[in-house]
Amino acid sequence: MGPDFYQLGIAHFWDHPHIPCIDVSKRIKKTMTPAQKTQSEIRLNADVLTTTLELKDARVVDIGCGDGSLVRLMARHGARVFGVDNSDLQLAKARAAKPAGNEVYYDGRAEALPFDDACIDVAMFFNSLHHVPAKNMTAALIEAVRVLKPGGILYVSEPLAFGPHFDLMQPVHDETQVRAEAQKAIAGAETLGLKRINEIRHTHPVHLDDFDAFRERMLRINPGQADAFGKMEKKLQDAFATLAKPGEKGFVFDQPMRVDIFEKA
To answer: Cα separations (Å) of 2 from 71, 111, 149, 204?
Structure first.
């Protein structure tokens, strides 16, 4: 699968000075298909991104970059990428990985990005907006608009609150409310100086080797749920067996996704 659902919160932005704006001679090219509003198409999140946007020579910020997997993917496609996260653990993983280009990682938060006004071509929330506190989601979108150049792209990819993967997670990591809050914030984006230019719905296949891999992932996301996980483990094992589809290796759990793409006025 693509990067895990990234953690993004509050802390440490003021430890870093603002990055000076650098002009880019080549505008990002938008190569988007007509709006797709069906969940039936199985597509990897990363494939949707790289077939939707021309990333070469674009200055991109990945807001809530986690371990940097997506940052490195975009760097391999020729982008100049900045990853922002406030998890020390995730940033350590990102910085320890072999660089794919000239990517840079910053400790920061969505509501106060370490960039000057109007110097970013693409701002991205990739499975991360629903991890911003609900009261701050609109502020995070406003901050993304601030750093975008006129004509720049805001790309928001969010998991929806249904489907086999969501159903498997829900007993130990229920994101019903936060995913709904993210969709509410996205619905108001056109009041923030943005123009919606596409909406893509697809189903992302989440690959898990086995039940132990599911347990490890859930407890990595939410370590405080270890006791609860143990108490309902038999129920979760039964759900795993019921909801899983066989994959080439391990098992697949479908996760419906929605991608909203906006242009800054």
So the answer is: 11, 24, 27, 9
